[in-house]
Amino acid sequence: MTLLEVRDLEVTYAGGATAVRGVDLSLEAGRKLGIAGESGCGKSTLALALLRLLPAGTRIGGQILLNGEDMLTMRWGRVRAVRWAGASIVFQGAMHSLNAVHRIGDQIAEPILLHHRATAAGARRKTGELLEQVGLPAARATAYPHELSGGQRQRVMIAMALACDPQLIIADEPTTALDVMIQAQILRLIGRLVAEQELGLIMISHDLAVLAETCDRLAVMYAGRVVEEGPARQVHEDARHPYGKALSAAFPRIGDPVSRFAPRGLAGDPPDPSALPSGCAFHPRCPVALESCADQDQLLRHAGPGRRAACVHMEPTVPGPAAATEDARSTP
Ligand SMILES: Nc1ncnc2c1ncn2[C@@H]1O[C@H](COP(=O)(O)OP(=O)(O)OP(=O)(O)O)[C@@H](O)[C@H]1O
Q: What is the CA(125)–ligand 1 centre distance, in A?
């Protein structure tokens, strides 16, 4: 069953920067999709758009169908309900997302009281259960955020995201601020909860290795576009798009000490979304660009079974019926 279907999503901030351009994605219930790309490629904008959490004045076009209901046309009351019970989000840097002056138990209980209309005792019980599910003793409910470690706070954020039994969790760089050991624990926790509860997961990271380890499929973004997608390990080990290749080379294995992210072998910086290069936005940095790449943008096309890449070097042939069916079936 398709849980989430994003069609031709376009997000333009009030200042005129189009941070997400024509993104199509789909996610089956219980599956895990990773979204990778350098800082500024539009990953967080995409995550925020999915739950309509973008600042006022931002223009969003296309469709975001969650269980067939379009998030972009539904009333705000319904959007607020869907944000907890349909899909919820775990941000990076839990210290900033938690309220410093409220006990963590009260913060977890708040959406339960609001959206499940639970009694105070019922919400307290559920809060204790959620804390235990994320590996914290129920008694920690009385702690304030500053009394917890970074990893514990991120566990609390995950408990909060699960509070209203959502079907989809969006995790935006959930482990970026944590050290490697804690990062691995949190990833295992997310993996376990998603499997046990058959949740859909969208995990966003600049670290392709982490995503390849955690997710079924991967989408690589560049300058607001998905430029490559396919089965997670295949994309990580044998990327088809030159940008996907550079990103894979930057993150060969989980936990490798990459102090500052810069795809190896790539000169320059990602483009400013309000001043994109002509043609394929990647062409000024691309080691295999042709002259025509400066004029012609590339849309995703067949790049092997279940795989697509937006590059002129992909097979120009139209895939046969078998390949086309495979592509349609395995689009993330
Ligand atoms: N509120 C905003 N107003 C205007 N432009 C914005 C806003 N938020 C983000 N942008 C711009 O949109 C582009 C995409 O940003 P976004 O945060 O989505 O990228 P990202 O891939 O998540 O990067 P990071 O990993 O650094 O968070 C960037 O050029 C950014 O400067």
A: 39
